[in-house]
Task: structure prediction
Amino acid sequence: MPNVPFYPQEAYQCGPAALAGVLNYWGVQVSPADIAAEIFSAKAKGTLDIDMIFYAERKGLKAVQFKGNLDDLQRNIHSRNPLIVLVDYGFWVYEQDHFMVVVGYAKGGIIANSGKEKHKFIPLDNFLKTWERAKFWTLRVTPQ
Result:
């Protein structure tokens, strides 16, 4: 889905950047800075997933969080619904959570708007390992 807007994230701003891309895709004009001003937590050094859900709903969209799988990703991409996923790039007991927007898939991997990279190819085994550590957290935001 090449028409999903991409916003390079600032430090600890992956949630607002991912959410801004999906909201703008659905016609809700908002910047990552606008979102961060309302839901970013400096204390948590990030954005809580529940706040992302509530923010999308306040903007008039339907937001459904669920435990996803590869079939969900492929089905939603075919239906032109970008998905926000949470991955954990940490190790052992150290968590390093990161939100990204899955915009496509290709042989051997997924394509995501992530961090400062648009349409980043992530090998499937790397993606699945980090997504599993985040309990396959997935957010679908769509019009009501």
